[in-house]
Amino acid sequence: MRANTAEKWLNTRIRKYGPISKLSLFGKPTVFIYGPAANKLVFASDGSTIANQQPQSIRMILGDRNLLELSGKDHKRVRDALVPFLKPESLKQYVGKMDEEIRKHVEMHWQGKEKVTVLPLMKTLTFNIICSLLFGIERGTQRNKFVENFQEMIGGMWSVPINFPCTRYNRSLRASARIQNMVKELIREKRVELEKMGASPHQDLITCLLSIRGKDNEEVITEKEIVQNVMLVMTAGHDTSSVLLTFIMRLLSNDPAVYAAILQEQENIARSKPSGEFLTWEDLAKMKYTWRVAMETLRMFPPVFGGFRKALKDIEYGGYVIPKGWQIFWAASMTHMDNSIFPEPSKFDPTRFESQASVPPYCFVAFGGGPRICPGYEFARIETLVTIHYLVTRFTWKLCCTDNFFSRDPMPVPTQGLPVHIIPKKLL
Q1: What sections of 272-322 are H helices per DSSP?
Q2: How far apart are CA 60 and CA 176, in angstroms?
Q3: What is the set of domains in the chain, with CATH numbers?
Q4: Cellular location of this protein (predicted)?
Q5: Which residue stretches of the chain have pLDDT < 70?
Q6: Which residues contact 112 (CB under 8 A, 6 or more apart)?
Q7: Residue 400 labelled as part of a binding site
Q8: Which terminus of the chain has fewer CB atoms gathered within 10 Å of its CB, N or C?
Q9: pLDDT for 428
């Protein structure tokens, strides 16, 4: 992963053994599966066949009651609670707030600078957006404490789970405990606000989850589930979106034609609006080419390499039986670079996504697929489009490192975090 040769290693394995083979990973008997059928097995199977299974380090840090760990009825119950807040109908009202958060970020971290490092700044931006829109935490001491502990927590999520003092894993566990306490305090505050009728159920994700009631007015989601899914949303939204935005910026530096097309689309939108007015949902709908560029970036540089599941019973698949209890490992995004699915896969071509029908089912899975498609899809789309709008209309930039290498740790990390020289448009 760190040498960015994982796909090459797996492709060699596929050529030797085919799209299904057995191996040992993390000391467990494992089946490696590949292809659209493998992606469908992972994303479309019900909870009685296979279950989510994360490495022990992630499970211990994020807990066992989040969407990555739940299956069956519990998975559906918690997912159904999260989806209403993240669906387009709800997110329309948050476009202006996200616009405001992104403008503040640009003013604080980009304007007046000659050189910036993109990936750390994008991580700062995505975490601030999550704090503001999903958890209702405004800028200040509380948000700064969240950032500090969150960065320490994610530092050990993919480490060897040996809990010795001074290890990354130990520091991550302790940071996780602090974050859980902070989220519990947030929940208590928002529960009081709700009881006093001083808060709208739609003002942030935590308030929304607390507002959901069952038949006898009981809370549908337990406090433990709210805490752990808040932490999951923090982690998923922070890492994946920041990687996507970083690689779009790298691409635009290397491809003048794509940059020019995005700039024209975004400047047309900017010219159509009174100065200082926030972007709207209708503006985002006009950013079709920009989103196709984002999708093609995700195809070539998917933030998530693969994942794990556990067979809950013997499964017949590909002419073999996967035994009950075995670990299933799949590298979903490898279909993105399959020449039989995407011709000339190493060529950057946003026209691949002009029509949804042009991409076969379970072949492009940057956001998952089927019933397990990422509930944060629309949130990520808004975040990406608004950020790119302000960057391309206000700045040009040049890469300080011209190599196109990146490593995985476990997300893609370009050389030195992608340092760039930036030039304000008004100086051109």
Answers
A1: 281-285, 288-300
A2: 9
A3: 6-15+22-427 (1.10.630.10)
A4: Membrane
A5: 198-199, 201, 426-428
A6: none
A7: no
A8: C
A9: 35
